[in-house]
Amino acid sequence: MKTFLILGGGTGGTIMANKLVKRLDPQEWKIVIVDKSEIHYYQPGFLFIPFGMYKPEDVVERKKSYLPSSVQFIQSEIEKITPEENEVTLKGGQVLHYDTLLIASGTDIHPEEIEGMLDGGWYQNIFDFYTFEGTTKLAKFLEKFNGGRVVINVAEMPIKCPVAPLEFAFLADDYFVRRGIRSKVELVYATPLPGAFTKPRSSAALGSMLDQKGIHLEPDFAISGVDSSRNVLSSFDGRELNYDLLVTIPTNMGADFIGKSGLGDDLNFVPTNKATLQSSKWENIWVIGDAANVPASKAGAVTHFESDTLIENIVHQLKGEPLEETFDGHANCYIESGHGKALLIDFNYNTEPLPGTYPLPVVGPFSLLKESTINHWGKLAFKWMYWNLIVKGRPMPVSTQMSMVGKKP
Length: 409
Fold this sequence. Notes:
Structural class: alpha/beta
Strand order of the largest sheet: 5-2-1-9-20
Largest sheet: 5 strands, parallel
Distance between the termini: 52 Å
Number of domains: 3
CATH architecture of the largest domain: 3-Layer(bba) Sandwich
CATH class of the largest domain: Alpha Beta
Helix content: 10-25%
Strand content: 25-35%
Radius of gyration: 21 Å
Number of helices: 7
Low-confidence stretches: none
């Protein structure tokens, strides 16, 4: 019997496991998935925990609850991949052979990559919200925070969910208004980008929102280090930002075993064909989600869209058929803007976020690059869709490829 091995049991790995059981002959293939943790986190919910909008238990489920019973789940850390031998070595020495491999190992934060980040202030008055531990500890800190300068800093790109730091800034403004201490809090958004976001029109729109909410934008801020003894964040051009609370989005990197295996770039992301999602080097290795180096957003919606191309190409390859170059980098993201409103952006490799309506012209119901209450409810509804549709590999009522319907170029 052949083995289809999946490394990573998060969003991408779970989606593909559910799709593969429907497309592969169970008499010919066994599907095995490896992950170091049995817990599946709803990571978009990490954003809401510091502001009391979600409780920690709202974002936690067990991985096995969302995997088909026929899929073998192995809980283990991964040591390395040996693609020449079609083998994966687990921590402890167990070796797994595969016929086809899917890398779905995601990305994680690496604060140790930034000088001084872990020296004294970490989880004291320096926090991330990209991990379960970080966001829950930040929530407790904010409960007792009564004023001062809050610096939200993106260390470098790419990062998981590129809009999340902006959302944090907007929700922080909302949170401090609700607590009645907004006048005592200075909010600073420091980014290595020349503006609020990566695309010109959306960057202008989001930058304007920062200004309207009294959040200072510090662009082109290339972090050089943190001095926690002075509560100072510094950049390579000599700028310094004092902080009372530093909310950091540190360097994001792919899994360590990718680097050990010689399969990744400098940040341990796997070189991947951006249209087919096949490894650039190995024909029987596929990559999905944040683990890939494709120039698309590292976000759950992108992973969902990728899975539609990926499942077809895996089947094509196993049948000896040509691959489809159909993944266009499609991404759509709700951006919480606070005070019960949100924006929506929809874009791909070649088209930046545009104004208009989504998914239908005129009636929407969601507005693009414009705040609305229904966008906020769409963001909250995404949690139900995630657990009940997306990770189960079920169809969604939106196109995999980006459409220009409803958009205003």
